[in-house]
Amino acid sequence: MESVCYSKTFIDIEEVNESSAAQRTCSAPPVMAISLENTASKFAPHQFEERRISLQVSKLHQGSQLLDAENLAICNEVNLSRGSYGHPNVCARPCILFLRDECYKGRKCGFCHLPHESRPPTLDKQQRSYLKELPKVTFLKMLLPFVRERVEGTELDAAVVLQLLMSEISVRSPESPAPTVFTPTQIRIVFERMSLAGLVSTACTILPQDRFPKLMKNELRRVRKAIKAFDLDTLG
């Protein structure tokens, strides 16, 4: 029986000159000169995080300096309201009506007319209830480190506010003068964002029937008046 088979045949390959663009489309993407592995080997993950936080803090510090410069310019050009003096550490709360261009009290307004970075931090209802249930001296000890930081971090003559708080703690707990108490994390975060005026206002809210917080509040008013008198004397 006969069979059919291919014998002595050749298959030629046609050579085609492809353009460089066509070759590029079929190629793999370029490799970066510095790989991620090399970078990771030089810097640990926590170092990346520290660098990011450092840059963020630097930007916030620069923004704060710009804000202070803007406030100084406004102070020199505008007749401030009564609550604006001592901005931003001992001034009153921001005037909501002024933000809406609806404040007609002008210089007699008891709220601050200068710009604030954000909405003033406040305690929520649950946090206020928790603080009101604490012994008074415990709450005052909790407040002390934040008041001290604000007083020592300002050039204003507000040392009397700190002295009042320390004296009150000493009177209420003569047997344990060391002001070391635990502050819940969420409350601590709010206190850290508060100005000196905000901390004093919180003391008045938590201890509404107590005479002591009102003494601190009156001292803040004295500081504002002293700043106002200094500005008037400076401007002539």
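Above is the first protein from milestone M3; the second protein from the same milestone is given next.
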Amino acid sequence: MNRSRSKSESIVWNLFVKHAAGKTSTIILERSPHEISVKELKVMVEKKTGVPTSEQRLIFGGKQLENSKKLGDYPLLKHNATVFLILRLPGGADRISLEERHTPMDPGLQYSVDDPCMICFTHPNDEDQIYTARRLPLVMPCPGGHSVMHPHCFMQYCQNEIFDNKKEAICCPQCQTEWSLDIIKKYGVATEEEIEIFADGMSVNVIHNDPDVTECPGCLSYCERRSKKDIRMHCRICAKQGKNCEFCWHCKLNWKTRGTKECGNTNCKAVDILAQIKAAPLKRVVGVLCPSIRLCPYCGTAIQHAHSCKHMMCSTCKCEFCFICLRPARDGSWQCGRYNTKCVPAPRQEKVPTRKIIN
């Protein structure tokens, strides 16, 4: 681990904790990571942020840190690493270079001389391609060895999975074997900055994909409700700042009533929308069973499938997405194949997306 030592040989290292409204706090640790538990770290975080330990969820590299473990149990949790407490979506996808990368030469790696890259489809035996060892695709590490990619194609795959498909982990597209950040770094020839961007993105997805986590409209922090029945939310961060700290879980508007069941906002229709989604019957879309009503993954508009094609365009925000797997189109291309190609259905949505509409 990359740490500094004082004259007395005591270990001193830092962790950065991102929390409310994108703020970052520095936690100074003076013991070995193998001596500090996650529970102890939460106490330090509470002193910095005011968020009680019982209400904290610390996320690193797409994984939730467990109270019973030591920081040393997470090998990539190093000096100057960033842990997420209350999150805002970090940018960075545009800093991932998709330029061609030389294939690393390593006796521990397996190279494909027969099968083409599954992303760019170039074949080592193509007559119009000049293939050297530095341009051979790699056989990715999974039990079947059936995923073959160039390093730059692998990085593109990772970027799409994290930032477009909102995945919490990178897995083999064939057998779903999970690939660690170490594997991404090795097989994608990734830089430390690129690995940090991927780790941050996966951490954010853990929060965004949780149906019991939503964004506070006041401070843009993320709050987790303790019970699925709770819809009147109280934000501690806003309360500390002297702001109105109560809002509706569904419509994100200020709470207006004295009760806990109805927020008093006439435009609050999210409860009805979610009930509609839950009750929507299944139907076959290009031969795949999925809910007959979906919410636009960008703005939350309810869309009912009529017939034929699985590809949709939201009339509200113009977002294009697949009705079955909910993956958005990327640069005019569909990630799940043609209009009639079968893909894996996404589960019923349990939370109404509240992202801003781009004009």
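Note on the second protein: The chain has a mean pLDDT of 81.
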